[in-house]
Specification:
The chain is α/β, with parallel strands linked by helices and 475 residues long. The protein has 13 helices and 21 strands. The structure holds flavin-adenine dinucleotide and adenosine monophosphate (AMP). Flavin-adenine dinucleotide binds next to strand 2, helix 2, helix 3, strand 3 and helix 8.
Length: 475
């Protein structure tokens, strides 16, 4: 006899565990199945995000930032420290502690909300029958439900001719766990993950070379932000080579030899470690029985409509395994929306206002369209900007690098995009997300009182500049 649930969620990442908690809050009998196993061999719900993604990368970014400031920036504050050293195993242990605390917190939240949790691999069959293969021993368990939410996440893309060995050639998992600072680190792909993990090891002293296939740096960001960021990262000694298509890599004598074609010319490079961060792909291995009725797209994503419904009745899919940006907050919001739809409520996700963040130093964050996109789409726009070098709080904190750039409809003044390169951009962008969600205009932000001195005044000034009335810069 199989146990019957209202909702079964397969996958316990920020998509799955959030969907399970929201479904349980709405009074639905809910189960969540997750296969992630922590370093201690126990269940570690939280998915890629908590275990090997958003959180551990930020823990290491923060540790390495402290070290970098100590060596490079504190002198200007009159603080001198001699012989500053980094204890990599201690830094990794702190990161692991943060991860453990958060995955333990998710277990408690699931329990507190009376979600039945299974540490195992779930497989969906016809009629929403789900087989769980437990990872802590025991026989398979069969469950069924009126609704099943698939939230199986994503895995790194592998380049043909480059095998991960977990030590010299690694993905995000390996790069979050080096036991020492490599003297040289090659990073294939100067996208979000490559930039973040490249920054960590560069700040700790590794000579980092980033090999990016595209001719433009951070092509998905606004052009002015990408230009300033490229200049700043060069100053920080990140060696970013554009138009560099990596062909193959092999480990020899403890080093990694990489063959790369740069602007049509083939050359060899040698690194102590190589991080492959060329993007992620949806993960559906072992998730679906042949008769599940769930279709995949040509790109391997689970095919869903605007409300995350798959081709099988009562089966939904959310997060990295479906279309849309591979971001934790997008996965979570889809999870909440689907749980509410199942419970008979209305729910909608605004993909136009999903914020993006790259946690470099300074951070890059944006919401809405870039100037390039507006041009391509033939939308008439106005632009305003403000340099952080003219913001008092930024200068007081030694954070005068960067800018805020705002784009608004030329006729209606509705905000179409805001792009920030600067300290705390990840937090500053929220104000702009709110403004855009409320279909606000640049005039709204221009008239809102911003506390002084704060970095948020740069957003205020960019909005004023859009109308030619910035106070602290020429118009
Ligand atoms: P996942 O988090 O991948 O979770 C899926 C879970 O399902 C996993 O635990 C997996 O084991 C489990 N699973 C899969 N198949 C089965 C099965 N058949 N049975 C049972 N369990 C199964 N995003 C941000 O928004 N901000 C960031 O700062 C950020 N930083 C990142 C840094 C790195 C290094 C990486 C790699 C990613 C980062 N991301 C970030 C992306 C973010 O991690 C993902 O977008 C997010 O985790 C997607 O959530 P998800 O729930 O869809 O999938
Ligand atoms: P992201 O999807 O943000 O993690 O970025 C991945 C980056 O890797 C993109 O900018 C791609 O252009 C880049 N990329 C993909 N394949 C290769 C390759 N073979 N060599 C170098 N860069 C690559």
């Amino acid at each position: 006899m199989s146990e019957k649930f209202d909702v079964i969620v397969i996958g316990g990442g920020p998509g799955g565990y959030v969907a399970a908690i929201r479904a349980a809050q709405l009074g639905l009998k809910t189960a969540c199945i997750d296969a992630f196993t922590g370093k201690d061999g126990k269940a570690a719900p939280g998915g890629t995000c908590l275990n090997v993604g958003c959180i551990p990368s930020k823990a290491l970014l923060d540790s390495s930032k402290h070290f970098h400031h100590l060596n490079h920036d504190y002198k200007a504050h009159g603080i001198s420290v001699e012989n500053a050293a980094i204890d990599v195993p201690a830094m990794i242990a702190r990161k692991d502690g943060v991860v453990k605390k958060l995955t333990g917190g998710v277990s408690q939240l699931l329990k507190g909300n009376k979600v039945a949790f299974y540490h195992g691999k779930g497989k969906l069959g016809a009629g929403r029958k789900v087989t769980v293969t437990p990872l802590d021993g025991g026989d398979d368990v069969t469950l069924s439900a009126d609704n099943v939410i698939l939230a199986s996440g994503s895995v790194p893309i592998q380049i043909p001719n480059i095998e991960f060995d977990g030590e010299h050639i690694v993905d995000n998992v390996g790069a979050l766990d080096f036991d020492h600072v490599p003297e040289t680190l090659g990073v294939i792909g100067a996208g979000v993950i490559g930039l973040e993990l490249g920054s960590v090891w560069s700040r700790l002293g590794a000579k980092v070379t980033m090999l990016e296939a595209l001719p433009d740096f951070l092509a998905m960001a606004d052009i002015d932000v990408a230009k300033q960021a490229a200049r700043e990262f060069k100053k920080q000694k990140l060696d970013i080579r554009l138009g560099a298509m990596v062909q193959s890599a092999a480990v020899k004598g403890g080093k990694v030899n990489v063959t790369v074609e740069i602007k049509g010319k083939e050359s060899e490079m040698t690194f102590d470690r190589l991080l492959v961060s060329v993007g992620r792909k949806p993960y559906t291995d072992g998730l679906l029985e042949e008769d599940s009725g769930v279709s995949l797209t040509g790109r391997g994503q689970i095919d869903v409509d605007d409300h995350c419904r798959t081709s099988a009745p009562g089966v939904w899919a959310i997060g990295d395994c479906v279309r849309g940006p591979m971001l934790a907050h997008k996965a979570s919001e889809e999870g909440v929306a689907v749980a509410e739809l199942i419970a008979g409520k209305h729910a909608h996700i605004h993909f136009d206002t999903v914020p993006w963040v790259v946690y470099t130093d300074p951070e890059i964050a944006w919401v809405g369209k870039t100037e390039q996109q507006l041009k391509e789409e033939g939308i008439e726009y106005k632009t305003g900007s403000f340099p952080l070098a003219a913001n008092g709080r930024a200068l007081a904190g030694g954070q005068g690098t960067g800018l805020v750039k705002m784009l608004a409809d030329a006729e209606t003044d509705q905000i179409l995009g805001v792009h920030i390169f600067g300290a705390n951009a990840s937090e500053l962008v929220s104000e702009c997300v709110v403004a855009m969600e409320f279909q606000g205009c640049s005039e709204d932000l221009a008239r809102i009182i911003h506390a002084h001195p704060t970095l948020s005044e740069a957003i205020h000034e960019a909005a004023l500049h859009l109308d030619g009335r910035a106070i602290h810069r020429g118009n």
